[in-house]
Fold this sequence. Notes:
Layout: H1 9-47, H2 57-70, E1 81-85, E2 91-104, E3 107-116, E4 124-130
Antiparallel strand pairs: 1-2, 2-3, 3-4
Helix pairs in contact: 1-2
Amino acid sequence: xxxxxxxxxxxxxxxxxxxxxxxxxxxxxxxxxxxxxxxxxxxxxxxxxxxxxxxxxxxxxxxxxxxxxxxxxxxxxxxxxxxxxxxxxxxxxxxxxxxxxxxxxxxxxxxxxxxxxxxxxxxxxxxxxxx
Length: 131
């Protein structure tokens, strides 16, 4: 007599439930990450402008908001943007913001995003913290 092999019905249902849960999280988090990559692209574009070293804070903000309106960036507000000068006088544009994504019922994902023109730091650090 041969032993039966394979998954039971309950095993298949659990596997499908896990795949659906992971897919749901991925679908809900993808827009936040796409927006972050757009923010990162805008910051790199501003940094690569020939006049970046001589730009003032107002010019940098105007350049960011022009590009942000084109790329449909809505999560970055004025309070998330910091513009400082290095010792050499070069401006440093830093954007730090958080996004809370509801997953299911009272479960949400908190995503922390950081991007900067400062070359001493990583250009982009992402630290998603699911709560």
